[in-house]
Amino acid sequence: MKQLLATTFFVAASASLVPALAADGTCGRVTIANMNWQSAELIAWVDKAVLENGYGCSVDLVPGDTQPTLTSMAEKGEPDIAPEAWINAMREPLDKAVAEGKLVYAVEELGEGGVEGWWVPDYFAAAHPDIKTIDDALKHPELFPDPEDPSKGAVHNCPSGWNCQITTGNFFKAYDAESRGFNLLDTGSAAGLDGSIAKAFERQQPWLGYYWAPTAILGKYHLVRLDFDVPYDEAEWNACTSVADCAAPKKNAWAKSEVFTVVTTRFAEQAGPAYDYIKARSFPTNEPVNEMLAWMTDNQATGEEGARYFLKEKADIWTKWVPAEVADKVKAAL
């Protein structure tokens, strides 16, 4: 599969021969942050393909991660584009940089944002339509038996060492799950958590626990997120829900993780039609992203290979982001 996908599709002119963004609205040279997680790698390579083949840009991908990339963009004006910036943790400095005219929130790349919560398998939800919320599920420990102690129910925890482990533990306390007959099951790692889901689906067994989207797992196994019973309370979240060892957490909902494409003001003002593409490039729901990540995982595909597959197989999505003549150029490059 990887050999089949390895082509000369992503061919860039030498950066030394191509000017940086020009004041006349031509595209020139563009730098894109290639973040170190799967969905961000995918969209970075999609942007590279569309900008090079559809708009004549010369694109360099540069390694990136959320905080160092966005800080560099604000302070140094490089790179030009952060395709998938999870901005919750950096909202204050980013808002300041936008107000100062250094950066622009180009588009909400993931319309649903990053989604976290407690989930159950779709087949379980269909068989138990009365279980719609976390409280509903916690009324029935017998439906989610702990594999190590079947007399108790099990809530599968977030991987060890992740921030969501703190939040999940506080939810477990806030919803009084222990006194209702549940154990908080430590899955150890992301692989352990994924394995517990795969095992449940293979055997069509009940499962209850933490997960998030967009992810490859949700592209392969259809989970249904439970409602939270209460609205999101930001003050409670900051004071206790997200704080380790909080003594008395209250019920809460997960904060939506906002995911934007952030660009430098220079790019927004000088890239011309190329910026119109960036402003249009958005996924209203996470489902197609989940599906792509599942394909990439199953095929051990790189971001480059994932982008080629996406552009070949998902034209119904990406051709809505560009004019017809641009779409034709990208298709011809395939």
TrEMBL record:
Q: Which GO terms describe its cellular component?
A: ATP-binding cassette (ABC) transporter complex
Superkingdom: Bacteria
Q: Name one GO molecular function term.
A: transmembrane transporter activity
Q: Which CDD domains match?
A: PBP2_HisX_like
Q: Where is the ABC-type glycine betaine transport system substrate-binding domain?
A: 29-313
Annotated signal peptide: 1-22
| Record-linked InterPro entries | ABC_Gly_betaine_transp_sub-bd
Q: What is this protein called?
A: ABC transporter substrate-binding protein
Task: Tell me what organism the protein belongs to.
Answer: Pleomorphomonas carboxyditropha
